[in-house]
Amino acid sequence: FAQLHAAVAGLPLASSRVLPGIVLRRDFAAYCPAEGDLRALLLTEPLRTPLPGPGVRFVVESEDQYRASQCWVSGRIEALMKHLQSNNVKLLLSSVKQEEVVIYYAKLHGVSVVECLSSEEIALVREITGVSPYAPFGDHIHREITETAVATFCQPLLLGSEKCVHVGFTSVSSFQPHCLILCGPVDGVNEQHAAALQGAFTMLQQLYKRVD
Length: 212
What we know:
This is BBS10 protein. By secondary structure, this protein is an alpha/beta fold.
């Protein structure tokens, strides 16, 4: 219930509504409008991997070497974004903050990015879609992308003064998530309404629980 409701203070109760899909309490780091179904990747690590591998020290001895290394990193990020674009991946949902070079090339190739999602939000998306997080590419930039979720829509949503992301996923089970938007004059009223509704849902769960 905590991940499937959002409280908005300062609005009348009549503004409350139920929305299909889920609402992520984050703003887009990059937003590229897309029509129709789109593929989404879950990320729990930065897309830009460190230059040296484990146990290896990277030494830069001149400014030219530093510039060359940055160009090499940028080239790999751009190649990955082109690969994502060719596979119709239009959305990255990340639990970590991605570097500016990733955001830049995502915008350039029409890929939306949402960063800093909580572990609970990532777990909810995984439960709905059945996909696992995408592993960093390492030396295999062009390998086949299999762990993608299908989103039927992805768009900005303004809740009061807070910018959010509203996204709908094709579920792999009978679970079709909807998000409850609770509006009220102050936070205290919203908290009371949320507690009452959660209690009602818990009672209904118990009422309709299968009895052997």
